[in-house]
Please model this.
Amino acid sequence: VTVSVLYCVSTTRVSHMSADQQQQQQQPRLDGKYWQDRWVNGQTQWRDREREENPFERNAASLHKTIVELAPESDHEADKIGDTTPATLFRGCNVFVPLCGDTPALGFWAKQMGCHVVGVDIAEASLARALEEHFAGRDVSVIADNGHGIKVFSAPAPGGSGEGDVTLLAGDAFHVMSEPASYGLAATDVVYDRASMVAIEPELRDKYVAALKHVLAIDANGGKEAPRKSPVNGFFARQGGEVRRHRALFLNTIERPVDLEDADAHLKKGPPFHISAQDVFDAYSGGKPGDDAVRMVVPVGDDRAKLTGPEGPPFIDAYYVVLCRSAAV
Model:
């Protein structure tokens, strides 16, 4: 990996706290030391499981299938998505991977699916691993400090490769999600949350959901239709002269079995933390009727039953797709 380093630091010093500093102070913050220590000490057992299972194609297939079923159909033949494949639907889309670590999902969405990917993680060591493992050979530029404590790694796709650009952000995800336009998230089409919500402390979960909703609710270009490279644009539906935008969240949670001797024990263990189906529906199906569609899905090739037996792991994977529909843009 060829790396270019740029420094962008604020030189302004004031005697009182700025409005931006006050806003940052009020934002929830992740426990950076905890996660950085886990990466440095090799306490990252989820990495082996993710690589062994290699769930990315089946997760994308499940997301595609659910979008086709739930998204409003377009009046224009060029925008119809019923005959698309995951590769044609998602190519050129913008994908956000919160709390990404060095997940192979980054390489899958950028290289195999041709998406433009933004990932954020508070542990910089994990992002260095991601660049080395998934994007070796790309020229990487680095902004060592963007003035808000965020280190920015940019790995553009090689010309003519058909792959997507990648931006990895080392810093607090809550800050990044509070300023989506500043971090390339204003035109997000898909949020891929396979191991993020379960890693958030339960007391911060509502704030995390609110931050993701903030990202999913923002349209690029001041509400105008964002440019897309894909010839099949499944994230806009043209109906009666109006253009409606929709975005999707793929969510993987875990459910821990209830201990009859300690009914709340499963809630205390983590990370990863227990999240019930009701928790997900409460989080993402609120608001105006019809704004959000939440569906529990079973990815193709994933046998949930095998996880519930006595020899299975101490939790069950659960999967959801949230489709966020917008008003006319």
Residues 1-25, 219-232, 287-291, 303-312 have pLDDT under 50 and may be disordered.
